[in-house]
Amino acid sequence: MNSMTTLIKALPSAGRTCQTRVSSLRVARPFSTTFSSPSANTKDRTREIERQILSPKSEQSEKDSSPLSAITRMMQGEKARASQAVSRDYSRMAESLEAEMIKDPYADRSPPHHLHVYAHKHNTLLTLTQPNGNPMLSMSCGHLGFRKGGRSGYDPAYQLASHVFGQIQERGYLMNIKRLEVVFQGFGLGREAFTKVLLGNEGRNIRGLVCRVTDSTRIKFGGTRSRKVRRLG
What we know:
Layout: H1 2-10, H2 24-28, H3 38-65, H4 67-103, E1 113-119, E2 124-129, E3 135-140, H5 154-170, E4 180-185, H6 189-199, E5 210-215
Parallel strand pairs: 1-4, 4-5
Antiparallel strand pairs: 1-2, 2-3
């Protein structure tokens, strides 16, 4: 045995064939007993990818579960409902306006002027006003030269109505009047006289503008006792 060892030391190339070979796997990992498989690495990678994909959803769910997000979602829902209600109101207004236009397509929607006819038993007064109530023209039978008891009657009221219609045309008020509302007050003789003039030849340019006729005569319901009836003779 001693001679063999000395021979190997003297001739190392001759003794290489006699040495026991060690596997490269044992040289690389002398202390490990398990082997690494590629399938385990792929599983780890797939798990990491799944975590990356699912992590934003979990964060979003946490945000949705917070009370602040619930308040914001409620406010957004209220805004959406309010916008829907406004759109419904606008649609209803459009439908109603369309229905009115279908019923009367040539009607002008501008506010009307007013012609007040105050027919008292002693006098007749005509007043033309703007839509906001400002007076444009006001005349009575006294402007035509009638005095005292002569102002009451059918003929003075007839002359007054024809004169007022002429003044409306001469002053150019017909250019601004698109719609006209006639307002009666009182039951004197001037009421019938004004109606005759409006329906006659003098009112041919004005009666086409009349859109409404109303009566604003005051009617007493209870209240204080009326004056004693005047009796002559």
